[in-house]
Write a structure and sequence with these properties.
Layout: E1 3-6, E2 12-16, E3 19-26, E4 32-36, E5 46-50, E6 53-56, H1 67-85, H2 91-99, H3 104-109, H4 113-123, E7 128-130, E8 133-135, H5 142-145, H6 148-152, H7 160-173, H8 182-196, H9 203-214
Antiparallel strand pairs: 1-2, 2-3, 3-4, 4-5, 5-6, 7-8
Helix pairs in contact: 1-2, 1-4, 2-4, 8-9
InterPro entries: Znf_FLYWCH (IPR007588)
Protein name: FLYWCH-type domain-containing protein
Organism: Riccia sorocarpa
Amino acid sequence: MATSLKSRKGNEQIAVNGYIFERESVQPNGRIYWRCVEVKKGCKGRAIQDELGIRAGRKEHDHPPRTTDVEVRKVLTEIKTQAAIQQTQSPRSIVANAVSGTSSNIMAALPSITALKKQAQRSRQITLVRYGRTRRAPTFAVQLWNQYHNTLEGLPHTNNSVEGWHRTFSSLMSASHPSGRKKYTTITARLFNIITAYPSRDLEDYLNGLVAVVG
């Protein structure tokens, strides 16, 4: 019986009888040829997949089965799969579920828990499609922080002007974090007096009065 796996780069693999295979070719009739992942080391082991299932090819492996490697790859594949599906589940929880029930010798062959959590984070993919792969959506929407239109319209890219206003206002109130209503009430009353006297005041005198109040 074959088990579906994922390589470290996300490519499709299968495990059969303790051997791991990667896809070699797909024929027009739908038949798939798989080759041992140790092919670069000289192994000529092959497997054939068609409507009858998966069976070993004519050429044998030149190395014993890698049962431990298969079990490790199963855990890693489970982490990648669940990280992509369970978007709200924490990487810690995903890793804990994937290694639950794993034997001590397999745990010893796995990467560290920290590395497994990082693997889950990298594998958490959602919408953005690029070159056939997907990436998770950004925490903050692009429209929220993109400065393209601000640049075209000559608008500021930062909130420095707002911070400047805050500093001026704090200086006017003689407090970094003013509280209470006394000073606000005083300023409001002064503004009210200046504005209501506008019809009888000179324009320059009126504007100077506003500047004196609001800084």
